[in-house]
Amino acid sequence: MKFILNGQTTEVAAHPMARLLDVLREECGLTGTKEGCGEGECGACTVLIDGEPVCSCLVPLAQVAGKAVVSIEGLHDHPLQQLFMSEVGAQCGICTPGMIMTALSLGPAASLDEVKTALAGNLCRCTGYPAIYRAVLKWRGRATPA
Amino acid sequence: MTAVGRSVARKDGIGKATGEARYADDLVFPGMLFGRTIRSTIPRGRIRSLELKFDPAGFTVADYRDVPHQNVVALIADDQPFLVEREIRHLAEPILLLAHADREKLLAAEVAIEYESAEPLFDPERSTVVFKAIEIHKGDPAAALAAAELVVDGSYRTGHQEHVYIEPNGVIAVPEQGGVTIYGSIQCPFYVVKALKSLLGPDRHLRVIQTETGGGFGGKEEYPSILAGHATLLALKSGRPVKLVYDRVEDMLATTKRHPSIVRHRTGLTRDGRLVAMEVDVLLDGGAYVTLSPVVLSRGCIHAAGPYRCEHLHISGRAVMTNTPPNGAFRGFGAPQTEFAIEVHMDRIAEALGMDPVAVRRLNALRPGDTTATGQTLREDSSALQVLETAVERSDFLAKRELFRGSNRGIGLSLFYHGAGFTGSGERTLKSRAKLILTPGGVRIAVGSTEIGQGTRTMHAQIVADALGIPYENVEVAQPDTAIVSDSGPTVASRTCLVVGKILEECALELKERLGGLGPAEYYARHGELTIERGYQLPDWIQWDEENYRGDAYATYGWGCDVVELELDPDTFEVKLHQLTAVQEFGRPIHPALARGQIEGGTVQGLGYALLERVVMREGAMANAQLTNYTIPTTLDTPDIDVVMLENPYPGGPFGAKGLGELPMDGPAPAVVNALRHLGLDIREIPATPELIDQVATAAARPRDDSKAGSRPREDSPA
Predict the structure, then answer these.
(1) Distance (Å) of CA B163 to CA A37, B105, B216, B277, B627
(2) Chain A contacts of B456, Cβ < 8 Å?
(3) What's the gap in Å between the CA of A138 and the closest CA on chain B?
(4) Taking the model in full, what pTM does it have?
(5) pLDDT tens across B215-255, in order?
């Protein structure tokens, strides 16, 4: 099975029904994508498939044949990564890669409401979310909400 | 430039944001097997027979007979086995362990177990097995109640709460030197050492290393000892590393939860609103084994009278056994339950008096010089009135209280406090230690306190940097590895800053003296290695009588006032949260951005506890053990939060700091329910789901029967 992983054409021998999450973590050794629930509720395993954020625990490998998959390892010094740390949008950090991948899909002038709606499928148990908003809005050049 | 008080760059580095940080499930060891736990499917009874229904080739199988020393998870009591021998006390109790290199084969393996079932007990009010009972007496409450001008009583209930750390529990056991090294998602590495000593006997090699940990909140305080024991048995039997990582369903089904509670209040008052007598009865559902229930009950009882002055009181508490998985540590540790009860009760008292909720609290709030329920005289670092007045003013509480009247919007508040550190003389017996090791470029901190998201590494490094007078960047923090670090006690009880931070501050001051004016690098180059290790000194003035629950329960307290504004959908009874004002005083923030994160995060956990998070127990186990139908707050459930951090330094804390981790969990639930009360809804129970609000609203529309409002048992069906 061939797909484009973080810009590189990649071939893996896994079962076509293997979860993309497991293929990334175990076949490709990319453990930045995390499993929080295995049923598409928490968003910790979010990756981009052809630019769309998707829970990789719900995607069988066969579905990404020929497609472009970007995991957290596909980002290089993205400003959002630094901002998640400096704004304390990451505490324990387990939701952070998925949260960042989802946030990448936001348009350039996202409002606070748009950020909330975009991230509604990504659970964070540590921050209560405001620090995540601060990180994302700072990346988009928006003022921090009072 | 000094580090304390500034939001300096965190010691975590960038790894959490790049995916490079390594959590337990990310680690792979050569020859590693996967582990699986076979659990009971009945809540109470005995095992009659057990049969493996698979080809055992390639499998490692372990049961209680493989325990080398004691089949006891050593903690407070010695009642809980690592693996069932015959008697089953709860559903999902571990019976048998399997390991295999191929996860598919492991999961397909079937084990047939026949049971002899016994009648389970699920109702804590009917339980006669008492794990712990506590009595707190002050003055003469019976006489004061008899003389009171007004008496208000009521009963309040809270449900289970699941931690939902986003990383489920997981450990890896690696056989080494005739013993084992554990890597895992762990809050308290030395608790695991203690439990494994009981499992393996005293003389085996034991080393516990904390991996990056994806949230804990108490859920990885005592429970990882069980996982580590299981993985150890499989690793020793197979001679190979064994990874045991729970999936979400198993984690929710089998691991500990917050204790459900029933708290009864009977309070005597004067007509002008002063509390003259309090009788409080606290009942906690401990589940099937003791675990930490005695100390959860202790903290719950000590906080049960709320942050109020009352000279005559009796608090009576019991934690009892039921046939559900054991309940255990969860942020707040008994106080969120009892502070929910007193704060909802205070709004009912205000109603009975015809006073507003602020006036009745202002009149009775503890001030410096007042004594608490245990007779502790509060010092100047007490801020009940300050947090109350600030929150009321900042939220425009009284004006909104009038403005919202007659609408479907409500506003409510709660006043709360939280003792920092172990209770009473607990820190004296714990004998925590901390260590500083000189490095070529500065100094390394070596403590067992774990970073679980809250900022331990950063906050400790700030304290050491400033106490030693060196740049923050020159302070390193060692990974908690029990072979290297000092046992600084568990990472619990809001003690990591107050207690361990204090020892580190003293280590740094001693080191500074030893350096004799040289910089660390200079000293190292001239004289070589130097390590300073010190123990904690609980201030001498703290006197505690454990027998009678009298004296200085905590060295210091954090104080908070939450104001919640919400809107009720009149058709669906859904609650929309609009605004939350959180005013909290915890000495002073070492790292303001991390401190704010603790308040925001703890507050949102409290909002979930108030409205959303309902553990449905069916036949003694969680029927909704999935994130699909056990819902925690998402971005869309979370209101704007206005955080105010007041300062009132505690002289015994590092740079005046107290503890903060648990305080924010205590206030949100009663503030939400008091805002619903502002809408005329007599709710005395959480979670206040739309179904419960519907029941209460419907009951309110019928002729009143006060004894039943808000506390009827509800239909036990999945959410």
Answers:
(1) 13, 30, 7, 36, 12
(2) none
(3) 15
(4) 0.97
(5) 999 999 999 999 999 999 999 999 999 999 999 999 999 99
